[in-house]
Sn-glycerol 3-phosphate transport system permease protein (Brachybacterium fresconis), 275 residues
Amino acid sequence: MKLSQGPLSRILVWVALCVAALLTTFPLLYAIAASLMTQTDFNAGAVLPSWPLEFSNYADAFKNFPLLRYLANSLIMASAVTVAVLITSSMAAFSFTFIRYRGRGILFAIVLATLMIPWEATIIVNFQTIRNLGWLNTFQGLSVPSFAMAFGIFLLRQAFSTLPDELHEAMQVDGATRLRFFVSTVLPLNRPMLATLAVYTFITTWNTYLWPLLVTSEERVRTVQIGLRSLQGEATTAWPLVMATTVMVMAATLVVLVVGQRQLKAGLVAGAVKG
């Protein structure tokens, strides 16, 4: 059924969109409000902070909590994984798209089959490997197991396959090597999809909790997600302080989204059109 285009229908649509936006953003808005509350206001169940606002919660987060160290550790891990995933996924996708060899289809099917294996099923094997390599409490132990991503290979392979074979053949006639074709043509033409994969990988890695908890026990390499958990006490918890720290942690991912928003939109639109 088609809705009429009258003023009433437009009002109903806008009301529905505003309600949906409010429900979606309420956790974030409440976290910001709670970070500006006193402990008394929070215990009383207040929704909005009382005046004056407690900006000291943000200062206490840095004073009583090694936030900068944890943020730096998470940034190192997420950046290393993002760069590695872009390299490995783009090279593998290029191989599956433009290099013809026996068993290419079977190998790609095996890569896709790994998407059906739960990550929890491989965590014990990965942990034993990291322990045997002596990589516990190291940045390579945090990041190396995530350097390859089957989803990234699939996503970029689908994007690369939209390029015409004639383009590859023309560059081969001109004497261009596969590496030159890959760097100068394939990657620039698929920049939006690469940006989409980069944003997705960075945010996913930044929010990882279980793996850093397993492979780290020292404060010098622990990530911010593990640090946030350490703020919660056994009996009582200074929740305004926790919320202030959480808001600053979320700010990092918001910066990534804002910076990569244009490329992310272009990648999503391109993927929808190609699909």
